[in-house]
Amino acid sequence: MTAQNDAPFAAILAEAQRRWNDLTAGDRPWIRVGTGLAGEAAGGFEVVGAVNAALAEQQVAANVSEVGTLGLCFAEPLLDVQMPNGPRVFYQRVTPQIAETIISQHVAGGTPIARYAIGYLGDGNSALDGIPNLSEHPMMALQQRIALRNAGNIDPSDLYQYIANGGYSALNKALTEMTPQDTLGEVRTSGLRGRGGAAFPAGVKWGFLAGNPDPNKYILCNCEEGDPGAFNDRGILESDPATVVEGITIAGYACNANRGYVFIRHGHNQPIDRTRAVIEQAYELGLLGQNILGTDFSFDVEVALTGDSYVSGEETALMEAIEGKRSMPRFRPPFPAQVGVFGMPSNINNVKTLAYVPEIIANGGAWFAGIGTQPDPDNRINGSSGTAILCLSGDITYPGLIEVPLGMTFRQVLFDMAGGVPNGKSMKLLQTGGPLGGVLSASDANLDLVLDFDVFRAAGAILGSGGIIVADEDTCVVDLTRNLIAFCQYESCGKCFPCRMGMSHLLEVLERIHNLEGTDEDLALMRNIGENMQAGSLCGHGQLGFNPVSSALRYFPEEFEAHILEKRHTGECPDRVFSPRLTRR
After folding, report:
1. I need a surface site. Which of 11, 27, 208, 385 has the fewest CB within 10 A?
2. How far apart are CA 336 and CA 471, in angstroms?
């Protein structure tokens, strides 16, 4: 315990609450426009321009903020209007022309426009006739938002807005009421498991670093996120980067570390800019740097960038990138807690993992452990506490980003929340956990799988980073699998032979099968290649690289047989022959 006086934070909190009250209950309407990844792609920045132009033309004074995603990606660009002391009315698929109408009729005229609205949040009134409560929308009703609690609600570049909504109360609590050992104990009690794919207990991992007496230790946050179909790490950093920065700082306190890095893929401009903005403000407010909040704890954080390399997401390759080297995995041992970045002891966690930490410290580890699934030794299930942050894409009615309690079933997520497959077609398969994950059939057994790391592993899949791609009845499993392996082959760093050549050979075989030139021996050949990759590869890229093929063979053997024996495709496939082996390295 480093201090008992929380007066420095109390002054910061009072100013944050004053500013928040001015936004929500002042004399001006507050207009928020989603400009996260989905909003940007749908024209969010053009909507912001149209809003500002319409306000100027009509001489209306209003506060305008860019916010991250609310998760309703199907409805972007989202624009919401909050009149002083009123509810937030959300408008979907807003164009610049619709934005002008909203400013004229709602902001200037005071009358919400039901035909453009998807819902409202807050206390409704008679002026909202015909507009439903957004919390009752299927995509929102079953969510339990912890890491995403501020997404779409606050300006991600304004640290005061984060603080006004509970931010940094956890760090203040840790520094003024808890020792580093107490803080580490709460994370262990929470049962938090890493959300980067391996699902290793975070508290145990922190303990490895905490036990190292070296005075210079590092906390690394991994936001490389190169998985096709995954965008939740980026979604957090572009919506609420401060929760990650606070989580890193708390981890630094628990592990007696003195420096942190937020590792972001080059080109992800909004996460980079918004994370740098809150880091700068944290220094200005005394929440980073020397003697944080008047205590004897000092900690520094900065953003580090990498190029477009999927393997950079592997923890030792990430350290190589931070050091300015080519992103290639290191041999282990030594492990990062012994020798990490710049030769110093280091701990590495995913964005989502660290985003949970402030709420765990604020509410207690037992609170978090009470959410999710419980251990079941008879079925070799260790329990998965907390929530899952899922990215839903593909052939689904409501694609988007959601946060739900672990323990829900696939069926609840895909049908009750995401609306199932559109256009009257049936669901054929689910691709989970990124390109190294599994291809699952949409059987009743798989749809009834609960969201749990161990349950997924037993089913031949990986919950991983939370990407779920849905495919309908027209999809060819062989073609999908070939594309997944093409990605993995292209992204192999080439350092170890089993992965470098194994991926290339798998792609060659799948190319033959897809072109209806496969033979009876090809299935056994792929299994042999996969076993060698698993046994001999240096990192998870090669060790897990056979997963898409093995799971596809497990659930769809008849489709491979149709290509090999009957010389026919089993779904929509491109007419052209797939490009030759990709050999950029």
Report:
1. 27
2. 39
